Amino acid sequence: MLTAENIKKFALIFLIASALVWLFFKESDNESxxxxxxNAETEADxxxxxxxxxxxxxxGKPNVTLVSSEAQQYSQYDRVIFSNPDLLMLDDAGTPWHxxxxxxxxxxxxxxxxxxxxxxxxxxxxxxxxxxxxxxxxSIDKNQKYLTSDEEVSFVTPESQLKGTGxxxxxxxxxxxxxxxxxxxxxxxxxxxxxxxxxxxx
Length: 202
What we know:
The protein is α+β, with helices and mostly antiparallel strands. It has 2 domains: 1-37; 49-200, Sandwich (lipopolysaccharide transport protein A fold), CATH 2.60.450. 17% of the residues lie in helices and 54% in strands. The radius of gyration is 21 Å and the shape is globular. The termini are far apart. The model is unreliable at 1-34 (pLDDT under 50).
């Protein structure tokens, strides 16, 4: 039976839920509008040519290195826009992942990187490349070592050539999940490093 006390409780729960939904959409709107608000006429807070950034891990060694021909910072939008970004990131085992693109955007608040246009990712084993990935757009969570893309993605390894649409990659686990339209060929041969597992989403 509904009592005055129960009605008050339901009303409070509804208000809290409504507030959370509003905050969620407000944050999503801010996130999506930030990039669209930045255009050629937007004045950057700072401009750097020949930018070189290094992030050190807890062990005191470089964890992420980023080189860019130009970098523009927009503090109001928590964004840094890069031209020709060249990113080197190490997984937990110390294996280097080298990423390049024509352009990139970094969310300074969420520490989230987006690479666009002719994106290329090379994973190195000793001095040789044992995996190459190409796509037109790639999102990078450098803290979780997690990569995603909604575009067509192609992979070349010593054992295979694959492509698919949509991708998730866990760098530390050496695991890649292709979402759909997967096709390719496989060439069995010996590899000196642990292979990256590439599977299709069921």
